Amino acid sequence: MSKHTIELTINGLRHTADVEARVSLSDFLREDAGYTGVHVGCDHGVCGACTVIVDGKAVRSCLMLAVQAHGADITTVEGLAEPGGALHPVQETMAQEYGLQCGFCTPGIVMTMAALTGEGKRPTEEQLIDAMSGHLCRCTGYQGIRRAVRKLVAADTGETVDGGAA
Amino acid sequence: MNAPDRRAGANAGAEPAGRPHAGSGRYIGQRVRRKEDARLLTGRGQFVDDIALPGMLHVAFVRSPIARGRILGIDLDVARDVPGVHAIYTQQDLAHFNVDMLSFYLVSPEVETTPLANGRVAYVGEPVALVIADSRPIAEDAASLVVVDYAEEDPVVTIDDARSGPPVHPGCDDNIAAEMGEQEIDEDLQALLEGAPHLIRHRVVHQRISQSPMETRGVVVSREGAEELTLYITCQSPHLVARWVSLALGLPPGAIRVIAKDVGGGFGLKNHPWKEETAVILAALMFNRPLKWIEDRYENLIAANQAREQEMVLQVALDDDGRLLASHGDYSVNNGAFPQLSECNIAVHMFVWAAYRMPRYGFLTRGWYSNTIGYAAYRGPWAMESLIRETALDVAARRIGIDPIELRRRNLVTLQDQPTTSCMDLPLEDITPAECLEKLLAAFDVAAFRREQAAARKEGRYLGLGIATYIEPTGAAGAITTMTGELAQVRIEPTGKVTATMSTHSQGHGTATTMAQIFADRLGVPYEDVTVFEGDSSRGGFSPGAAGSRQGVIAGGAAIMAADLLAAKFRQLAAHLLDTSVDAIVIDEGMVRVDGAPDKCRPFADIACIAYGEPDRLPPGFEAGLEAQYRYQPPPMTFSSAANACVVEVDADTGFVRILRWISSEDCGNVINPAVVEGQIAGGLAQAIGMVLLEEVRFDARGNPLAATYKDYHLPAIADIPEFEFVHAGTASQSVGGMRGCGEGGAIIGAPTLVNAIADALAPFGEVPVDLPLTPTKLLSLIEGRDLSAKTVDDQHHFIADHPVTVPVSAAAESAPQAPQPAAAPTAEALVDGDWKMVLSTPMGPQEMTGHFETRGQALAGYLSSPEGQMDFTGSVDGANLKFDLKVDKPMKITLKYTLAVTGDKIAGKCKMGIFGSAKVTGQRA
Amino acid sequence: MKPAPFDYVAPSSIEEACAVLAEAHGGATVLAGGQTLMPLLNLRMSQPFILVDLANIAELKGVTRVDGGIRIGPMTRQCDAIDNKVLAHDLPVLVQALRHVGHHHTRNRGTVGGSIALGEPAAELPAAAVALKATIEVRSVRGTRQVPAAEFYIGPYMTVLEPDELVTGIRFPEWSLGHVTLFCELAQRPGDFALVGLVGALAIDSGKVARAGLAWFAMGPTPMRAKTAEQLLSGQSLAEIDPQAVAESAIADTAPFDDAQASADYRRTVGTRLFARTLREALNVTEAA
Ligand code: FES
Ligand code: FES
Question: Which of B128, B611, B673, B705 has its CA 20 to 30 A from that of A110?
């Protein structure tokens, strides 16, 4: 089995590592790089728990080999909050809207929301919900996730919504 | 400190007299932010796969590719040579541990159950060997090189197969795993059913479900010397796992520490370890290195225990006014090969009519072994009762021509009717399904909907309204050995902050939040100042954790009691130090004041420092420190009630169902945190929607699972779940704090609500057969009036015919064998008197006891003794046949009627357990 | 599960890639976007000796206009194709089909060529290629050949690609700008494989159908070209089209199967309806325009 040296940026830090060809990006991020916030719920590309941002796009890290991430810029859920601890708006919204229970699916959901909102992006509610259809959550029945989506869309378009939980 | 509740209706209940009451406060009853979220949202949770220990090795399993057969040989040679492989174990290597694979009730299994397959395999996916290697990929490489030689046999897959197929377990007479009730419908009941103006015979077929927590099973085992064992395991209670492992493996409990800080959902699957986890623990004990096994999703779908595969026929007799007259239920559940508990689901019958005025009910209930993955619990394991009752009532309403709401109104038990007992002798004091229904109807305009529905039908659009009501037993404690109270330990630290250690455990339940709300309110400190620890068997005390919708009810009560003890102690000290009376002490958000003396104001920390560090300043006899604990034992059972409504549209062109609206009107008593309660209900409702429309574990005729990935096992996604609306009734319960459980209700009431809505929408086409899931193909078949289902001949149905097997019908074993009467009968005294070792096969597993009999003529006296104690009885004897009655109080007041017969050194017969039906008794002379 | 061991190479030219494939004698598997291959690797259902990643071959990416038609590089990511202005203008129905492929996340990695070369019978893009009369350009060290999409698929996940061959381009002929686009798909949940699907286009010339291209997905072992319906439509004026009759003739060219998601009978019944509905709506829109 071939081994490869990869260089990549994870959460703003440069990493160099030797990886076996068969190692998935999700396993690499969890086990080699130590970002255990990347959760593996299925390993076959359906649940979305392993979602990370690769070069600006939300992708499933179980469906990439680590070697394919050579040269990539990756953000995991650990890289979202401010270094000082202030939550990213997406994380803050999810907390306010009770978007999580066990929290296992949450890192993936948060990363998709983060990739699609902010920085002048103006997603429609429909687009965000469509992206959310790639995430499975067994706990919440998606109630808080849906509310969070609505709030994020409103924030991105500068509208205000009421009815948000205290 | 009593800030008004900002949400009307959240806590409208009246306080039960003389009992501490959670009420609403600054925090209790409020939607406060969850304590768990900060770590979970930033990827800093600690799930079992996040644990890495020095020297840790990885485990993969070799699994059976066939559903049934003998193992002729296992060749490990090639696999052992894979670089990086440390050891490979089979059951032979583990046999010396003599593991007792206990159920949740801590009773031994009915059939031999071993961690790895012992000479035979009984389902596809059964673990046969365990590989230990440097990494998981290497362990899998080696596992794929293990060669197992099987003599394959034809499997028993479905409940139907089990009825007529060869026994799954050699040595068993048949495939009945558990059975209760009466084989024949009693004559009186039969007469009532047949004589009724309306008799509904309603059948429900429920598919098999995978609990599918998003975090699969997994364990990291570390043995520290001969006397310590640490387990990181994804579970529903670290305490229960510690107890289970100690008992099942025969290890001293003190040596075992179980840690499960974060768990990605349980839903019944993770009640206690099963084959794989046990095998890994044993392997770690043998190999002496930390081992990790994380189940992958493929393993989870083909080899983790599953739930719900069941069918039931309910007969319901009604008069012309729609009043219930009598009913009979016949229920079967597939137990698979190695169930976590041999289950015939007696609770289905306990609760099927509990909330309705049903004069008469009889039943037969059975669990069947098959060559499939074993049975385990899933949120609301007895949910069939609500599904079949509520759907049958709607069928009845259509048949008789009564509005389904009116039908319920005429039959539901209301608050005015209580206290009363159900047809199964359940005491009912404060159930409120009828009240929840009225609240629901206040929030939903049925008449307007009916107009909209009629208009839509004219356009060829099919709208439907489904309504269902139910009650749910929650917070049960005291009747079953593992269902205990909860322990709260709380202290005001020298810093003035509050720390609590709870016996609770969260797999998403947010108990660290809700318990902190209680402590903050009851102690008068800011919510931010409270930290709740749980998830470690070395902290807190025993509780089964999340099982039976119990933590909010029981642990909430414990937290209130412990906090009140501590508050009293704190006030006493504060009064002493501030030189005032206890009554003058005012506590508010972490500050202590004296009424009328504004200058005497101290932060908690000042008082707490003295409590710990300056013994001289304490009142005489005052125990230093500020700590309290309380184990709360709640009433045996606390009922929650609900009524739900759902509106659907069924596309008559495609058979697709769209849910347009859903209202949940429920009574969870006093609510600690509405967002948490609504989260529990919503999660359960979503699972119910999955059951009705999407999810299904299928097998082919050879017992091969057909849903091995999430591409094939369809969990509901965001588009499948509507936004739920909530109405809370808030009738305080009898338990401390007045809470009622809310963990399982959504999963129970969701299914009948949705099925009723679909059936209402499609009523113009006939009755919807309740055969879950209701796929588009099935619904379109009804709409089209022709069978659109797969025409490929499913050989499953031919299997039994093709493989005729002669199984001795075991009916004889069911009734008390009549001892032959020899010509010169020996005296009863010689036959019967003395001590007998007997086993009573109950739904909670076999119970061992010793029977002592003394006869005097036709009179019999004696006692039965078991670990629970000794009970005396008197009865009668006729030759070798004995009859006696025993009255017991636990789990409820019933009379046990024993009918036994002696044949030589053996004794056999049955025990009629009132409403629970009959259980087999076997034994021999001691 | 974790993948079985394999070697990984990422050639930087088509020639190099073809050489690796030739040398591997069938032991190599091509990695495009990996969104279907990775699950198969992770489940050990695919166990190649060598994985040939095409990501470094720049000439395999991009959308270009060529002699009236369009050429899509197989390594063009689905998300990029969706955002592509040329495609939106010339082949809107392809963009519509692309939006239905998998989920947002898999479209961010998945490629147009990967989906087309895989030949999943329930997938949108192979059917779109068949319907729109695409030609698939195939290269190996033995040379280049052009395979009409209709001849490319021979069974579920089976194509005429030899183990040493590589898809290097997909060419779509020009569909006149006034063309009518047809797309319908019924799936249990968004992103699931279709239960029933149809993609097609009608080139319109002076109110008449000049050319019709129709193909079903999830309605047989391969994308199923609705040839009879294409012939029925050709030459018809828009006003005289009978959507129900067209749909019924189209369904005759399917061979659906029973599976866990839906029965063959279901697929046929619903397929006819959906297509008739889609065609009716498309014609209404065209008339209104
Ligand atoms: S773990 Fe990657 S999608 Fe499930
Ligand atoms: S919060 Fe548990 S799976 Fe989503």
Answer: B673
